[in-house]
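RECORD TYPE: protein structure
NAME: Kringle domain-containing protein
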Amino acid sequence: MLREDKVTAYPECRLTKKGREYVGKVNKTETGKECLRWDSHPYEKPVDASDETGNMEYFVNGDIWSHKNYCRNPSAKERPWCFVADSSVVWEYCDIPMCPERTYECDTRLRFLRVETPECKVTQQGGEYVGKNNATISGSPCLSWSSERVMDFLASSLFSDGDEMDEQHNFCRNPDGKAAPWCMKLGRKWEFCDVPFCPIQNSDPCQELESQTGEKSVYPECRLTEKGREYVGKKANTETGKTCLRWDENPYGKPWDFFDQTKLYEELFINQNPSFHKNYCRNPGIYRERPWCFVSDPVIQWEYCDIPLCKDRTPRECKLTAMGGEYVGKQNTTISGFPCQRWLTSVPRSHSQWNLLSAFPDELDGSHNFCRNPTEGFGGPWCYSYDSPNGWEYCNVPFCPLSDGRNCTIRIANRCITPLECKETTIGMEYKGTKNVTVSGLPCQPWLSHTPNKLSDNKFLQYFPDEMHPSHNFCRNPDGYAGGPWCYNGLGRNPRWEACDIKLCQND
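PREDICTED:
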């Protein structure tokens, strides 16, 4: 049996007196009563909750479900509390200690104690963050929240430290449920802040021990991370043995923790395709603890799956699928060597891909600039880059070797093939050979690269007869050019592209 000492480190303690930022996992009151789930709405909205907020908005990150039955302080009470089953009592306070104080010595005459606020976030959205960062990712200073240009659309009750705010308060916060902590800057514009994740404390040390000593699990049939959002294995039953339903059936509507709720259901999956995931366990919700799936019981609707942690949790520097939405490696430069822009900033390249958090295989913080594919990037992981002619470019993420160790030159439906080195039709859209020089002898530019020739539209990659990878520079005809297979000039821009000399196959 594992003996665990009492933990009082953040987030299992309060940083402020009222503890509105508390997101720990205590779920009993100070008298030992079990807390009720917040989303069960056992009683009326607390009378001390702000009239400016609804039933969900007064919770950190603007939701109820993720807080389960943990002690919280979504209202104006003195400290964290919860509802209890005894209707004559309704609610009770919880025994949540203050975080340890640190001694500060200004000089030999002045010493004082203060709770040291961590400069990190626990959740993806970071609504609990009460640190002192007051600059955006791009370095712009934050405006005070009390400014008329800011607070005209936000209520102080939406802030985790709203009771302690003064006119100078200009620290990064997330009062309205955006993807991460943010602030306003000059020009009536807002931007995310560089608030990293707090160091991970394994929630299940026994499972961690099993992953190190038990039967070896190999990715993709195991989790590389606690939440397992990158999991693309083939387990299709829950931890209690229930059969998973297909994701494309969407049996109960869009789950509340699919982010962003304004997006279409199918956009919020890895590779933006629910059908691809069949009825396998997955974790597209940003607040579920590990992979799960829908089940046929309408009362419970979903259950977690028993997906083990990988023995080797080092991310693989390759992709398993053609689109590579599951890739969680550390590549942060494009094929042409351009540095990647951080996903949570729209400077210098303006975008809003953070609204597809559910389609990312991992969580985002201010420093995250790794190649990912949250969209329909048919060529695989990519990133924004100011230096790229198009403002973005695919990254050098190859396919993972097959189970027998082979690397594919030509790959279709996850299988290596030996293609015909001729075209079966005059137009040659089906050609899958390996010729990579034009009719005049120019070497072909890789299809995923934007240099030396800028590719105006990569969506035609979906019309290739084979799967795309970074070194793929073979003659193809994805747009139905009457002259047959062609490619871009890999040596320069004159000519920009040219046809290839592909012979017709001879009929036997």
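COMMENT: The longest strand covers residues 101-107.
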